[in-house]
Structures are given as C-alpha cells and as structure tokens.
Write a structure and sequence with these properties.
By secondary structure, this protein is mainly alpha-helical. The protein is built from 12 helices and 5 strands. It has a 3-stranded mixed β-sheet with strand order 3-4-5. A hairpin with a 3-residue loop joins β3 and β4. α7 runs antiparallel to α8. The radius of gyration is 72 Å and the shape is rod-shaped.
Length: 374
Amino acid sequence: MAATILFFVACKGNKTTDNQADNNTVNTEITEPTDEAITTDDIATTDELSEESKSLADALTEEETQETKAETSKKTTKKETETKEKKKIISQAKEVVKEVAKEKVKIDPVIEAPKEVVKETVAAVKPKPEPKAAPKPEPKPEPKEETPKVSDEMPPAPTKPALSHDKWDALLRKHVSSSGNVNYSGFKADKAQLQSYLEILSANTPESGWSRNKAMAYWINAYNAFTVKLIVDNYPVSSITDLEGGNPWKKRWISLGNQKYTLDQIEKEILLKKYKDARVHFAVNCAAKSCPALLNKAWTASNLESNFEKQTKAFINNSKFNDISAKSAKLSKLFDWYASDFGDVKTFINKYSSTQLKSNAKISFLEYDWKLNN
C-alpha cells in the first residue's frame, strides 16, 4: 500500500526540485493507514521512483496487451466456429428442402383429392346463416279515387236493353191457358227468363213522352209479372194471402228504375187514379181463383183497348165470377170493394153483360175465393 502511494506522489512531483519539500509534507499527511510511520529514509529519491514506476507501468501494459490478444484470439476462434456451424446447418437445410421438394411432387396429387373432399364436407356441415326477416312492408296510403278518364281504349258502356214485352208474351203463352189457369211450376223452371224480363222493365220506366196506351200496357204487365214472381219465389204455396202476413200488396219490393213500389201503388195510385179506367180491374191479376183471369199474352200499346173490352166482357159474363138475371145479380166482390171506380154498378154491368139488369134488380156479392189460380 505504501509503494502505491509513493508512485502517485512521484508522478505528481516531476515539476521542480523545489517542490520536493512540499511533496514530502503531503506524503506524510496521506499515509495514515500504515501500521508504522514512514520515515524520510524510507522514501526513495525522485529518479529511483520514476524508474520503478516506469518499469511497473510497462509490466502492466505488457500484461494488458497479452490479455487483449488472448481475448481477441478467443473471439476470433469462436466467431469462426459459429460461422462454420451456420454454413453446415444451411447446407443441411438445403439438402432437406431438396428432399422435401422431391417428395412433394409425388404426394401432391394424393393430397389435392382429400382437400376437395374436405372443402365439400366443410361446406355441407357449415351452418347456413339465418335468413334475415323480411322487413315489414310499410302500409301503402289509400289510393285516391279518381274519375276514370274516357279514352278510346275503355270498353263502351253497356247499352240499355230496349223496351220489349216479347219475353213476357212467350212465357204467358207457354204457361197460361186460354181460361187463365197458371202453371207456376213451369214459370219456376223458366225463372231466369222471367227475371230477364223484369230487368228490361226496370231499365225502361215510363217517360213523359209515352202515349197513354204504352204507359198503361207497361204498368199492367209489370203488375202481373211481379205477382207471378212473388208466387214463384214462394212456390209451392196455397194462396197469395199466405204471404206477407196476408197482405202482400202492401210490401214495397218492386224495383223499377230508381224507385221501389208496392202492388197496390201500381194498381191504385198509377193505373186507376191516373188513368181513371175501371177496366184495369179485369186486366191485373191477383193470383186467386176469384180474380179476373190472367191474359195468356202480353199487353201492348196496340192491343190495349181491344184487350180491355175482351177481358171485361169475359169476366162479367162468366158464371164462375158473376150470376146475372134481369131481376137480380150476384156479382164479384170486386164490384163492392171498388164501387167508386165503377160508378153506377148496374149501368156498368149492362154495358158488357149479355143479360140486362132491370133498374129494380137486386144486387148481392159473392164470397171471394183466394185459392191459387193454378
């Protein structure tokens, strides 16, 4: 330890000889750890110390150099060894790659087939995505009603059927006898033709320009045809009075044009009240045995007057309906119910009867038979 301290002191004391005293002082102060005090005699001269220090430094330098060379040699040898190992490994890897490449050529076809099978299997077992719920359609706004535009492409409006009583005439001739007996079963079988005729009547209601005969023929045919329909719709039935609580003439059900009528309206308010002709009672038929016979042909403007005369005479002179002698007469109840329409009954009877009543002849009325006129 003392030698080392002297070396540092010697290095510091190269400046001048005059500083030696100071150096000796410093050396004395620093060397505290030694067990014994260092005397002046023990301290070597400056030259001696310099030589010793130099030798020691050279020795240290040589030692360090040898160590450095040895270390460098070791590193170089290790690096060369690692390089050789790497080259060897790379060479071996290349050989392995070559061998693998050769084997791959052989096994590729064998591998590809299973790959396809695997793909198909995966596709088959792969769960399909749940279909998305279709969005609820938004409610469409209600379309606005628009007036259709008339164009050449639109079909023409259906033409109104012309007024004709031919269908009714054919049905009457087919299903009504000359004496007025009605085959309601036959009418029921031809109900479609009857309905077709009623539709013609509904589409062709009387107009202001029509003649009296044309209008009266229209209303007489309408009354009779709708009465037959009433029976046919309820057939079989024993009497018309079995329908509508015994008074079917008050029911409003007959559609003609834009209005609905009752049988009473057609007979009393239109035919009798408007045209004031009592012979109407022998033209309209109420489907009863005591009612004037249903004519077996249609009424028309051209045959109206002749049919009035024919029907009136036939009814008054038929003993089934009236029993007439010069001194007395048992007349149909019609002449009692509608006496105001006939005026003086004896005068009316004498106009059409083959037997003339005396002015003092007694008049009575027969019971009305409401059984069906079939």
